[in-house]
Design goal:
Blueprint lengths: L26 H6 L8 H13 L6 E3 H4 L3 H10 L6 E3 H27 L7
Antiparallel strand pairs: 1-2
Length: about 120
Amino acid sequence: MKIPLALLAALGCSLALANPPEAAVPAQAAASAPAKAPLSKGEIKAMQEFKMLDFNGDGKLSRSEVVLFPRLAAAFDDADTDHDNFVSYAEVQVFAAKHRAERERKRAAQAEVASGTPPVKP
């Protein structure tokens, strides 16, 4: 089975905007929260992949759950922002947004080099 680079380095560029799994949202908060836009196909796929990797169903990924996926295992420490040795769906979303931004910067730099335009410094 092929897991896209977006699940922790690839659980989806689309994850940056995805909603957390239902189990991660307390019932009270879900009831009082305003209605959210429907999930995109990419967000649904990313959530399904997260749940697939969450073998014990606790709503977070452990090192042992991602050990069979070297890219995910290598990115684990970067994604585990609270350093609890688990990666929650929210942490995956943040990591995916960071990964997407880095990838977009690299693409923009490559396009500038290819076009001969000098890079713009921030």
